Amino acid sequence: MSINEDSLPKTFPDIGLNQWLVDALAALSIKAPSEIQKACIPEILKGKDVIGSAKTGSGKTAAFALPILQKLGEDPYGVFALVLTPTR
């Protein structure tokens, strides 16, 4: 599936992240989401299963970790996540 980049959200608040996460990212000098984050985070926050593929260094780890952290912040006892990563 290809994604039309013009239709993707532009900022972390636009993709649904809470302000405390946006502030934490800003403190780490991360100002804007990468393409993989723009495509995956909104779907993950909706509770959908996501398979994402992108180059090394593109922000894949944050793409799955940020929604997990947000859900943990909302309900620390109700989050279940399974992250599968292939090896070479």
Automatic annotation (TrEMBL):
MF annotations from Gene Ontology: ATP binding; hydrolase activity; RNA binding; RNA helicase activity
Record-annotated DEAD-box RNA helicase Q domain positions: 10-38
Short sequence motif named Q motif, residue ranges: 10-38
Gene3D superfamilies xref list: P-loop containing nucleotide triphosphate hydrolases (3.40.50.300)
PROSITE patterns documented for this protein: HELICASE_ATP_BIND_1, Q_MOTIF
Domain (Helicase ATP-binding) ranges: 41-88
One cellular component (GO) term of this entry: cytosol
Annotated signal peptide: none
Keywords: ATP-binding, Helicase, Hydrolase, Nucleotide-binding, RNA-binding
Pfam family, one: DEAD
Name of the protein in its database record: P-loop containing nucleoside triphosphate hydrolase protein
Organism of provenance: Blyttiomyces helicus
